[in-house]
Amino acid sequence: MSAVVTMEQVILTPVMRPPRRRRPRRHTLSPPPRGVDLAAIAARVTYVGSEEHKSRPSFAGRPRLRADAAKCDPALMDPQRLTLWLREAVLTGHVGAPWEGGFPRYAWRQVGGIWYEGRLTNAQQGQYKGYPVPEATVPPLR
Fold first, then answer.
1. How far apart are alpha carbons 33 and 123 in whole angstroms?
2. Cβ atoms 141, 135 nearer than 8 A
3. Distance (Å, whole) CA 96 – CA 126
4. Alpha helices in 13-52 (DSSP H)
5. Sheet harboring 46-47: ordered strands across?
6. CB 49 within 8 A of CB 129
7. pTM, whole model, 2 decimals?
8. How far is the C-alpha of 112 from the C-alpha of 115, rounded, in Å?
9. What pLDDT was estimated at residue 16?
């Protein structure tokens, strides 16, 4: 006994295509593009922070803590120290694609047993924000 399929069922049935990922997976280590010097990139990156992760006024501006955002430790208020952490992450190659404007979108650094993810916010100036992340979300680093 065979089932009868109507023309309407054929037309309305979605076609499933195999996944084709065009951009690199998020949270994966990515080597720099050919000819990119990580030391030169590290010298140019800066940490500017984001008021979306702050619960009190800071160098990043007035607090606008999002309900779904990781709250920044209030003790981390020195942008020079945070820029140093970011630069160390880039120098060690703990970066992830995509590369935008010559900078990696992501960088990872562990400090005091806590993992932080830096995310590119301004590709023209190499500015990043950062936030704590669970260790399980950090890619295996070399």
1. 15
2. no
3. 14
4. 38-44
5. 46-47, 127-133, 114-122, 103-111, 95-100
6. yes
7. 0.72
8. 8
9. 58
